[in-house]
Amino acid sequence: xxxxxxxxxxxxxxxxxxxxxxxxxxxxxxxxxxxxxxxxxxxxxxxxxxxxxxxxxxxxxxxxxxxxxxxxxxxxxxxxxxxxxxxxxxxxxxxxxxxxxxxxxxxxxxxxxxxxxxxxxxxxxxxxxxxxxxxxxxxxxxxxxxxxxxxxxxxxxxxxxxxxxxxxxxxxxxxxx
Length: 177
What we know:
By secondary structure, this protein is of the alpha/beta class. It contains 8 helices and 7 strands; from the N terminus they run αβββαβααβαβααβα.
């Protein structure tokens, strides 16, 4: 009889332990020790509140991808390096700029599906977009790089979108807006 109890208790214990680890409600752990390839030292990060929650973002991102056409103006205005942007040719022509001169890769046409493969090849350290256009891709985008989605402004006040984007870019203290 004691052997029977042992044979029942061990599998039940293993079943409970494995079930608890399988159904753990915690979010997957993300390595936040972003490392610069040249310096091999951790990059300083800050917590950014945005439309999809909270994201740890480098304080001074070096490779930003913008996945909303009109948002590309904000990092450019703040002097942040943009490595890729959606619908870039039309946006930069409207600003009188050239994407080749700025070294920005066009990652696709506006109103087309986000090209995740092209974004991955750019190795961004921040992806910036809007919640309206990118809510469905947020989980995929956040696996590529820290992703901040902001709300499109309801009013004509430019600060509604500028300030959250500037915060994500680590530029709110440097610029008096």
